[in-house]
Amino acid sequence: MDHRDTDLHEDYQSLFDFNAGVNKNYLYLSPEDAAATLSATETLSEEEQDELRRELAKVEEEIRTLSQVLAAKEKHLAEIKRKLGVGSLQELKQNIVQGWQDVTAKSAYRKISETLSQAGQEASAAFSSVGSVITKKLEDVKNSPTFKSFEEKT
């Protein structure tokens, strides 16, 4: 195994458990299903049962083949991403950027953004107005006769 195979194996996590193979739980029958199956097999001829067993074996083989094809496709996908330099963190970043673009494109976001911007402008104007009023009052106090007489005594 060369360096590229090590990186590929470490970076990529398949959703399919290749070691486990086909999930045998798919073939599990509940007691009720088993009882129904037994009664159904009693009505099937030996030839029909053989045909169904052959079909079952064929479907199980197809499932194994598809699992192997899926595994090969997932490995090929990981190799292409590795060659393109697309890693897990870069994919996450792209997903976040795309998600943010999707959010900002929504009309509800634009309305909220506009409302908050307007509220911020109004708050800024209000604070500016309060500052002007305070400055004016302080100037009035400074120019008042009481303040001037206090200033002269100190």
From TrEMBL:
Belongs to the TPD52 family. The keyword Coiled coil applies. This is Tumor protein D52. It comes from the Eukaryota. Keywords: Coiled coil. Residues 42-83 form a coiled coil. One of its GO terms (cellular component) is cytoplasm. The keyword Mitochondrion does not apply. GO terms for biological process: B cell differentiation. It comes from Heterocephalus glaber (Naked mole rat). InterPro entries: TPD52 (IPR007327).
